TrEMBL record:
Belongs to the FPP/GGPP synthase family. This is Uncharacterized protein. It comes from Phaeomonas parva. The lineage of its organism: Eukaryota, Sar, Stramenopiles, Ochrophyta, Pinguiophyceae. GO terms for biological process: isoprenoid biosynthetic process; ubiquinone biosynthetic process. Signal peptide: none annotated.
Length: 438
């Protein structure tokens, strides 16, 4: 049914082309473009519905090839495929030097006025047509005491690349809405009771309303994104939403390369996943769940500011590697933080069955961790045993080194932007991400 509906939509698109006969090299293809409705009827009449759908799919694919509707407008938006080289990198002292050189730069102070008005802008975008959904979203935004690092990054990139305009301010709001929607959905999936020390939306309003509120935020964000009137920006942020889903699915299963002597594991994931090491799989998951939003939002911001490809790529790389460093530190704090500072129970990742960098790196020293990872720490005593093995390894230290290395790649990307106080603030922000304690 879904496939048939998709084909009829393509037929409608073909009709809107105006009956023009594009030269595809075949008579049936020319008939498809000249009179799509008649062609559909004839195909269904001459064969079974299944065969007609297959035939129409082939014709539709040819039509799409001509119009280029499946070709990405923006190349290279899937940074998950470019992680191996940065994983081999060791810290080189750049983070320490940058922290000293930019100690007077305050990234949050520079855009504080814009961040203060962010909440009002989001409330305006939410509208008032659906008071219950609006109440769910506003509950979160009013209790949120976070630094709003994502819109801060977007606004700093805008300022570093020439100045903040209305579309870039709107993009910052859209970025925060997408992030918040992902938190609503994550809390339902993880059965979380708290978020940043306060009752989670799903606990206050129930799972159904939390899911619908997340969907509502994504819908409003998508409408606002379309109103930016920039196809490439729409594609960048739409890709982020796809990545959020991919990342969540990846988090639900152990790395496929664990548990088999030949290094190949589960076959129910994407084909590419079996060729990745456990750490590479984890980092790609982190790109999808965390870094993609930062990377593609920063790139879209540079794009909306009329900057060239060099600046757009620098903004993208900065956001990607800050995002990867951010998630690595999050996973380290799960072992080193407390419930009071984290706003959630310590060792929450282990309790939810998630194998993070400290665990995966510790497993290289303690192979018995692999079986615990594969069964998602579900047996009695698994969490305590995994914690003990991680602390009896170099896993935490190596994870910290990896976070520092990612932040240094981000600093190098920021150095490609024009030299301004806002660029220095971006570099300072990369240092702060690694040094944070909550």
């Amino acid at each position: 049914m879904h496939q048939g509906a998709g084909l009829l939509r393509r037929a409608a698109v073909a009709a809107r082309v105006g009956g023009r006969c594009l030269r595809l090299g075949g008579k049936s293809q020319r008939r498809w473009l000249a009179s799509p409705a008649d062609y559909v009827a004839k195909q269904v009449a001459k064969s079974s519905l299944d065969k007609a759908i297959d035939a129409l799919q082939r014709e539709s694919d040819a039509f799409e090839d001509v119009l280029g509707v499946d070709k990405p407008t923006v190349e290279g938006t899937d940074g998950g495929i470019e992680l191996k080289s940065s994983l081999r990198r060791e810290p080189n002292g750049l983070l320490t030097a940058t922290a000293a050189a930019t100690r007077d730069a305050d990234p949050f102070a520079l855009v504080s006025g814009h961040i203060t008005s962010l909440g009002d802008g989001i409330k305006h975008l939410l509208g008032s047509d659906h008071p219950v959904l609006q109440a769910c979203a506003q509950y979160f935004f009013e209790l949120d005491g976070g630094k709003k690092i994502r819109p801060t990054m977007v606004l700093l990139v805008a300022a570093a690349c020439g100045g903040i305009d209305d579309r870039q301010r709107r993009l910052a709001e859209i970025t925060e809405m997408i992030h918040t929607a992902s938190l609503f959905h994550d809390d339902v999936i993880d059965k979380a009771d708290t978020r940043r020390g306060e009752p989670s939306v799903n606990r206050v309003f129930g799972n159904k309303m939390a899911i619908l509120a997340g969907d509502f935020l994504l819908a409003r964000a998508s409408i606002s994104l379309a109103r930016l009137r920039n196809l490439e920006a729409v594609e960048l942020l739409s890709t982020v939403i796809e990545h959020l889903v991919k990342g969540e699915v990846m988090q639900m299963r152990p790395p496929p390369s664990l548990g088999n002597g030949d290094g190949r594991g589960a076959s129910d994931g994407p084909e590419w996943s079996v060729s990745l090491s456990p750490l590479e799989f984890y980092m790609r998951k982190n790109y999808y769940k965390t870094a993609s939003l930062m990377a593609n939002s920063c790139r879209a911001c540079a794009l909306l500011g009329g900057n060239d490809e060099v600046a757009q790529r620098a903004a993208y790389d900065y956001g990607k590697h800050v995002g990867l460093a951010f998630q690595l530190v999050d996973d380290i704090l799960d072992f080193e933080g407390s419930a009071e500072t984290l706003g959630k129970p310590a060792l929450a990742d282990l309790a939810q069955g998630h194998a993070t960098a400290p665990v995966l790196l510790a497993a290289e020293e303690h192979p018995e961790l692999e079986q615990l990872i594969l069964r998602k720490f579900e047996e009695v005593g698994d969490v305590a045993r995994a914690e003990r093995l991680v602390r009896d390894s170099d896993g935490l230290r190596r994870a910290k080194d990896l976070a520092v290395a990612q932040a240094e790649v981000a600093i190098e990307a920021a150095q490609l932007l024009p030299q301004t106080q806002h660029r220095d603030a971006l570099m300072r922000l990369a240092c702060m991400v690694v040094d944070r304690t909550r």
